[in-house]
Amino acid sequence: HYPPVCNALEADNGALRDAILYHLQYSCGSTKKEATQGELARAVMLAVRDLLTERMLATEKRYQQHNAKRLYYLSMEFHLGRTLGNVLANLGLTTLLARTMEELGVDLEEIREQESDGALGTGGLARLAACFLDSLATLDMPGFGYGLKYQFGLFRQELVQGYQKELPGRWDTEHNPWLISRPDEVFAIPMYGRVEPSRGRNNRYAPVWQDQKFVLGIPHDMPIAGAGGKTVNTLRLFSARSADAFDIQIFTANDYFQAIRHQLFSESVSKMLYPSDVDDQSLEMRLKQEYFLVACTIQDIMKKYLKTGGEISNFAQNTAIQLNDTNPALAIAELMRCLVDEHQLDWDNSWDITRATCAYTSHTLVPEAYEKWPVQLFEKVLPRHLQIIYEINHRFLHEVRLRYPDDENAPTRMSLIEETGGRQLNMAHLAIIGSHSVNGVAGLHSQLLRDNVFPDFADMFPERFSNKTNGVTQRRWLYKANPPLANLITSAIGNEWIIRAETLSRLDEFAADSQFQKQFAETRNHNKRSLADHIMRVTGLVINPDSLFDVQIKRVHEYKRQLLHLLYIIHCYRAIIEDGEPPQVPRTHIFAGKAAPGDPAAKLIIKLINNIGQVINRDTRTRDMLKVVMLPDFGVSLAEKIIPAADLSEQISMAGTEASGTGNMKLAMNGALTIGTRDGSNIEIMEEVGADNFFTFGLDADTIEELRTENSYNAWDYYADNPLIRRAVDCLDSDMFCQEEPGLFRDIFASLMYEGDYFFHLADLESYIDTQQQVNELYTHPASWRKKAILNIARSGKFSSDRTVMEYAETIWQLKPVV
Ligand SMILES: CCc1ccc([C@H](C)CC(=O)N[C@@H]2O[C@H](CO)[C@@H](O)[C@H](O)[C@H]2O)cc1
């Protein structure tokens, strides 16, 4: 094990054990004999946290000594996953703790299963933020996360009769062992009220925001350990508390709820994570959550900066702020308010500082995901910020008119205020105007942002637009999640890949080596058997561990086309039962993913997956050739169980819809072969691993764009021309998969045949089926399958979040490692 930390602990035999027993007694008030699993887990986590705390303090000292520039990553969502295993991996303590637990007669695995999944996020955006924090600490860079300490994280998903049922996701029992609460560091956050015009110093116009209601922000710090454990940064999460104690008068008037009404009102700001990643809910509470986050953060950052004794005018030289999508874009207006109103800086200076400090990343291409807030909601909740945004817009549109004197509609197209559909604030426009950098998360995505989504801004500010292709941390997603393969790789090329993923390319020479292939296959079969056991335990379904594991795990959304995968399964099923044509290769189709509670189409897809599974899995005619299973409650920990066992990675979104994807990277890095469209980062994965080590199919984004603008795509053409397509699609119109609820899936049939098949399923189905045939063909040649799989691992180095973070640091944040 590479990091030094464990050597010290190794040497000092018993130190870790003593620390655990100390916390069991003094932090949990329990003894070894009586301790519950939960208490044991807390004692272990507190003991490990102690190691992190001292390093966190040392890291902070180091940054102060170097007066280092700091990066603040603002995100409404962080999907951390379980921390214990990750810290053990990064500090090289896994074996030592396993041995210590053995001495204490406790099974480390059971302890690890105790920890919640840290699901403070909905999808890829949230997990990417967590991978970035791991890379920043590993690269010894002063990078800090800022988010909300939701009491309820992402809902837990149960499948009841095949339907998704949402249950509260209690991520944060009051005492999450990793969090260090800072109750003395309270931030008073003003909302509501009104703005009085008045004259300030040297008679300058200085509006006064008054009669606000205040909510208090309490910080809670999560240590983020990098590989090696030398650098430990923090993720600061804010929880909301009411400013006014409950009103004793009203209480004595025994109207308890009236007495605490305001308390509940303000504390609900950080009550729960909004579960949707489809449409912006533009709800007052969501706006308050976003503002609460940025207001606490800006106050905290400014306080820290002024403590360094730095000049306010040099703020941008010492501070970088990354906006993780539009959700924290209010940081731009809040920083302006802080500089102009609280530090009396002049507007232009403040604007230059704000723009030089802020940078914006877009994570979506789905138009309805772009946040637009009703102006009157702003008037009510954030009257001063609305004024500032009007001023920003006024000055900006002046610039636009100067720049495009002949294009009279340019101001309307680029304005922060959209007049159509009730006056709305376009948060993406604010994010672009108030930032010095705008990036997409994959080559195609960044191109589409320039050409289709923000063409006017790309023309006016070409230097601001760049691409930063996503990445994932190989420490959690390979080293921790897949020890058999990680050890095999290390035995072949050493362990440098853990901190330098590009060295994985040394595996290239082993790809065709039969000995290495054999060992590789053993790691995979081992993982497939433990996943088969897990599936058996959770669903009762027995699957064939030697079948091809065909995996589609991600949020359920129409654009991600889980339905296309299902149409292929239906095609195979009918080929077996009607044509007596068994597939060349037995397959197990493994689905997992949550649908936004407010997305009925996605929820019906989940029901269809489970009903198709029900019918096929108990059909004796298909018994060992075809199985379909959906695992409930997909999140980081379940992904870590499924990914090491996946043979085929389904990345089949309609070209031009998936901004990047990151699951595709995790699966390729673990040796799965990808069947994918030319969408998001699939294109770059194919470029890196080689087209003959990647199964691609379907229309590309330009063709779809063309067909859409010409409105010349007609699903009936494909339905009429291809009897196999017709046979598969007709199942949705029949009750083959919904005997008990006849007609249940007619809406899906209608979405394909009567509502224009918006996501081009039928246009891609034939080439998808053909490509799946090639997959079967190859799977019957294990040596060449394994060669391609090993080449996918060898050439996945680019998709490490270390590479992504280094690109952000060099070209957007001007951030340097501090060692
Ligand atoms: C306002 C509702 C809302 C909330 C979240 C979002 C996110 C943008 C959704 C998201 O998670 N996007 C995913 O971000 C990943 C990381 O960059 C990409 O890899 C995925 O392609 C993208 O869907 C959209 C809309």
Automatic annotation (TrEMBL):
Domain of life: Bacteria
Keywords: Allosteric enzyme, Carbohydrate metabolism, Glycosyltransferase, Pyridoxal phosphate, Transferase
Gene3D superfamilies: Glycogen Phosphorylase B
Pfam family, one: Phosphorylase
One Gene Ontology cellular component: cytoplasm
CDD domains reported for this sequence: GT35_Glycogen_Phosphorylase (cd04300)
Cofactor field: pyridoxal 5'-phosphate
Summary of the function given for this chain in its UniProt record: Allosteric enzyme that catalyzes the rate-limiting step in glycogen catabolism, the phosphorolytic cleavage of glycogen to produce glucose-1-phosphate, and plays a central role in maintaining cellular and organismal glucose homeostasis. Phosphorylase is an important allosteric enzyme in carbohydrate metabolism. Enzymes from different sources differ in their regulatory mechanisms and in their natural substrates. However, all known phosphorylases share catalytic and structural properties.
Name used for this protein in its record: Alpha-1,4 glucan phosphorylase
Organism ancestry: Bacteria, Pseudomonadati, Thermodesulfobacteriota, Desulfobulbia, Desulfobulbales
